[in-house]
Amino acid sequence: MKDKVAIVTGSGRGLGAATVRRLAQEGAKVVVTDILREHAEATAAKLRAEGLLEHCVIGDITKAGDVQRLVDETVATFGGVHILVNNAGFPRDNYLVKMSEEDWDMVIHVILKGAFLMTKAVMPHMIKQGWGRVINISSRGHLGSPTQANYSAAKAGLIGMAKALAKEEGRFGVTVNCIAPGVIETEMVQTLPTYETIKEQAVKMQSIKRVGQPDDIADAVAFLASERAGFISGEVLHVTGGRYG
Predict the structure, then answer these.
(1) Residues 233, 176: contact at Cβ < 8 Å?
(2) Which positions are annotated as active-site residues?
(3) For residue range 95-125, what is the model confidence (pLDDT) as tens digits?
(4) CA 50, CA 73: separation in Å to the nearest integer?
């Protein structure tokens, strides 16, 4: 990925931090971006300490102005943008009858609207250079998960958007794909009060008897972002340890 420029949203920690690090290790110039300054700057500092080329931008991807500033800074710093990983997102779980409108809107806006605004902002650059990779981090939850109507809807929406854009942008040399992780042992997941139960149930239902690690997702992203994946578009890669139901 030498000379490629990558933006990874929500890269202050968890899957995003692992992904931005892997892309940098593969030779990309990476942009760390997150709404939480402390997390973003900590990740950027770690990359810098490893001698990896990075730039850090703090912003809210649900706001078009912040998104445009992020993309403009990226192009001004590194001369272009070739890879976008739409990773930012979080759950706000509850049964539908108890789910607040605020929790519905927040999850949909960050995951789905954020991906829309980011992809719209980078696409002109990808079209102009005739090369691009957009990778949406969906979830096994797109298959449906109780208490996650908002999260499942948003993650399924990322897949629909990717399939539409794969058809729309392929003639410009731009591929658009999704990765659907299963249970991954991130900082956020480990803080859940039911984490041990979630972990036990997941391992029981998987053919690979361990929970996923952030690097499992980062490695999948690195493949889809590479030249080796140039004939793959509109696909959903499940990284679930063999769990699909």
Answers:
(1) yes
(2) 151
(3) 999 999 999 999 999 999 999 999 999 999 9
(4) 23
